[in-house]
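ok so i was messing around last nite and threw this chain in just to see what happens. nothing serious, just curious
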Amino acid sequence: MTGTTIGLLIIMGIYLVAMVLIGISFSRKNKNVGDFYLGGRKLGPIVTAMSAEASDMSSWLLMGLPGVAYLTGIADAGWTAIGLAIGTYFNWLIVAKRLRRYTVKANNSITLPDFFSNRYRDKSKALLAISAILIVVFFVPYTASGFAACGKLFSTLFGVSYLPAMIVSAVIIVAYTALGGFLAASTTDLIQSIIMTAALIIVVIFGINVAGGLDAVIRNAQSLDGFTSMFATHDPATGSAAPYGALKIASTLAWGLGYFGMPHILLRFMGIEDENKLKTSRRIASVWVVISMFVAIFIGIIGYSMTKAGAVEALVGSESEKLIIKIAMLLSNHGVLAVIMAGLILAGILACTMSTSDSQLLAASSSVSQNLLHDVLGIKLSQKASMLAARLTVVAIAIIGVVLAADPNSSVFGIVSFAWAGFGASFGPVMLFSLFWKRTNRNGALAGMIVGGVMVFVWKYLIAPMGGLLAIYELLPAFICASIAIVVVSLLTAPPSEEIVKEFESV
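result:
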């Protein structure tokens, strides 16, 4: 192992140890499951903003998004980023404050399944059970994508086998999440967002310099057919351009709809200490998201010029997601300071992954231990036993994630896009109608949740493969079908009780 490799390993090791120490420090502050899963609603505006966005971005910000831009140009990545930027802003603008207030009114709900069940006074607990199951179904592969990203990182860097590298990464994430809960996850997410920002800046500056300057980057990108167009994509196999039509643009923009149903983001809205500070959080979050995503896309464009200059080897398929790792390794060959900066970039990749995985583990854990075991099955536990069950559930879900991430050839971007669609269609319409349409009833919410979740699978695996106009991102049709189901079933069944309507109006 070279001195450079040892230096990188030390920097990343310091970062990982720091994350675990944060988990240990916050473990003493978790007096009950409410503290463990929602931090006692004590988050400040900056932590709320940055932890929400860091947990949102995941490993695809530094790996998936640059990889897509590197292979096919700016259209696919660009429209995705625009959709996510719009979705981020409107989620903070119209959902955050009302959800924070409503979850307190609705029997102080600490999880999304709790909120849906309390909002509609669902004595059958069907909403609670189905929403909890959907969270586990879609979060386990989402978490697995994070573990896979870590495995790719360490195997590429240090030449170790993918599987043990991935398992060690998962163990560290589980350690600080299981110990510190929501407050630890949110605090580490704030730190990780800062590291992610530093990584983006360093990569752009170094990449442009190696590629021969900004003019060379732009010139090389424009030389590829369709690479710099928002209405065409570059086909790396043939070198030709393929049109990027209106329907494809609409389905890609639909990524933004996913925000309204993301449990790990919505929990941040629920956890802020003062709802009046959400405006500050919204501004911070929106600016950071827009800048970070478009910088990530630019890294993909820079990467092509670095390949053409002979600095980085040509990458194909899912290998393109390793672009930023290759750039960091190239940087590390330029002295001690460069090793430190390269270490920051690599820690940034870990930060992207860990900030999302910890939040997903918590959300999935709360669905199993709090909603399924305690609320649905009626298993009564003491506070101490409840905390133990919560932590053991984090471990159990992580183990399943590790099993799913065992294949090193899986695409981080592909896994995330499917899970994103699942949450967006299952919970997004139900969340919006729950907050803004008082005629929505329990049956409508249940129908929307089921239809949205089922349609994601149906469209992805049965309809989209037919090709043509049907080959669109599954989130858009599933979201529309779920919304229609909510309206139709709510209108065809009895209206909500006077108690539910009064609570809605008070919020």
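not much to say yet. The chain is about 75% helix and 0% strand.
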